[in-house]
Amino acid sequence: MAGIGHKFVERVAHFGPEKALVGIVAEPAEQPNENKLAVVILNTGTIHRVGHHRMYVSMSRKLARTGCTVLRFDFSGLGDSSPHLSDQPLLQSNLADIGTALEWLQTTRGVSRVILVGLCSGADHAILYGFSDPRIVGLVLIDPYIPPTARYFLDYLSRRLRDVRSWRNFRLHKSKLVRRLYEHLSQVLHREGGPQHLVYQGVDARDSLEKAYEASAQAGVKLLVICTGRHHAPRQTYREQFISAFSKVSFGASLHLEFFQDADHTFSSVKSRSELDELVTSWCKTTTFERSTLQLPPTTDIAALWTA
Amino acid sequence: MLPFFFGSKQRRLYGSYEPGAHCAAAGAALLCGSWGMEYTNAHRAMRILSKRLCAIGFDTLRFDYFGAGDSGGETVDAELDGWKDDISTALRELKEMSGRSRVVIVGMRLGATLVAELAPRLSVEPDSIVLWDPILCGSDYVKTLLDRQAHHSERSIDSAASGPSDAAVALELGGLLVSSSFFDGLKSIDLRSRKVRLPPKVLTILTDNQHRSGEMVGLDRSEIAILKAPSPWKDSAEQEEGLPVEVFERILKWLG
Asked: Which intervals hold domain Serine aminopeptidase S33 (chain A) (predicted)?
């Protein structure tokens, strides 16, 4: 891989109102950041910025070795960051924190273009924020929320029916299959989103996410979507589910889709994390990031998500 | 709170220092966490414990061992003896930053085990030590990690992914690449039968039902408290609801 071997340094990033936000910035020791590009890694759920199995430390360092500036930080109230002072809803507070992180990078490092990286809820935050800020040129979405498709249901049913344990649980009236089917039906009927990701209260998650993806693609934001295939309770079961679920979106050349069939949701093996790091590093180095100057489509509908 | 790096250039450690509410009598508290996913899962609980200690007047320092968390080094660079040195380094740092004469240590899981083993050799003699569910039997602990790992079919024993480290042999444990000496070090932990020389004021808190105080020859000089409380180091799916408030309360009362 190009550039591996550059010396890098890690420094504490302490920023935002009242210096409430804490993170670590990894950057090349000597080489100036000539392309003004940085990567910002977001929290996964309530796990702090180090990530499961230290995955974000490893990813940050590998990216920094290739010449990138990388910030991993904690949302307000997570990790070492202080709780948000305002009474904003959690989602708005987190999205505001992303903006604050970008401002800090712009002020202290002269960064004008940013790639957001997020896993699960981190990916959800990234897509909800990315289209609205002209500094965002790329999104790495690892296991983002993907609405179920017909093939997903068939795959899931088939998998569960082959699993002897599910029959035992069924007999004991504890079947996850039944419960999950009920959940999905309930979601469809009530038009709600995925319980393991952000909860999109009162909005149509599929419709709103379609708009967010469409707006991102129109704005020229490059998307690297990575899905895993070894969930205990899978949200996606096949490579093309993302495209099927968002079939109305004109991704064009903006989308790069990868499916890690043998990786679990938190990339708990060294091998899968190593492959993930290779992919992300390579994509960041070889992709041409250029945000379109076209006017964004009206975002009033998408903005409904911001208040969820 | 002050996040900062400390230690030597070759062994940079990340720490979070929080000054306590003004109370000259309290002192300074060093918090030594666990390792791997236990460290990650328990991060919030350790931060809240730190805040609770600050509220009763302790200056606190939480830190990451070398090769763990935000500290320098890769996971394969971790060694238990090195981590004991890190505890001594952090203790000196805390003493210097706070200027307090009374220093206490709270260790959780592997952190508690390391503190217990290190206690006779500490450069700064602590006034009190709290050992929160120390790992008593390393071979049992390693077996648990390996059993869990066996559920993942994509296990790998792979030293090629370790990057620039010089470790001769590396293997995967708890989802992390570790050196064989780290692995052996974990396996050799034995506080059940091996005696350790503890200072006079030590509180051992046990929340795990599988341990009984009679099985802990190594810690038999300490005060034992058996509490019913959640285990914040467990995976979220295994955790009971809520924070281990009972443990926090006991620690605060005992140190206060």
From this structure: 48-170
